[in-house]
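Dear H.,

Thanks for agreeing to be a second pair of eyes. The structure we're designing against is below in token form, covering all 108 positions.
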């Protein structure tokens, strides 16, 4: 048994949930915020047999897309050592995935 934890953008989370539940996976969604942009994310937890992990990863690859997000001058100047910086776009999105062994699984 494996636990797949995927951190995805909220924009992608519902599509991933729909796809995974449609094929019978049980998924738990947890709201999260973090990172440089403080944008909303979702943490998806999926417990699956080891042989099914690739199916979960395929769904994540298909549904979680990278995007470019504008960052204002104030945020940029904080990292440019006091110089004024023009707004830029930074890459965001995709999915960050952690997979680990589950020692014991009990469904009550």
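And this is the sequence the design step returned. I haven't edited it by hand at all.
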């Amino acid at each position: 048994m494996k636990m797949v934890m995927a951190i995805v953008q909220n924009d992608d989370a519902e599509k991933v949930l729909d796809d995974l539940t449609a094929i019978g996976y049980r998924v738990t969604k947890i709201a999260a915020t973090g990172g440089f942009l403080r944008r909303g994310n979702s943490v998806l937890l999926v417990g699956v047999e080891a042989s099914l992990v690739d199916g979960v990863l395929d769904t994540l690859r298909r549904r979680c897309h990278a995007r470019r997000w504008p960052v204002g001058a104030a945020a940029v100047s904080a990292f440019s050592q006091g110089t004024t910086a023009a707004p830029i776009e930074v890459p965001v999105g995709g999915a960050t995935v952690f997979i680990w062994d589950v020692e014991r699984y009990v469904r009550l």
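Two observations from my side: The chain has a mean pLDDT of 84. DSSP finds three helices and six strands in the chain.

Warmly,
E.
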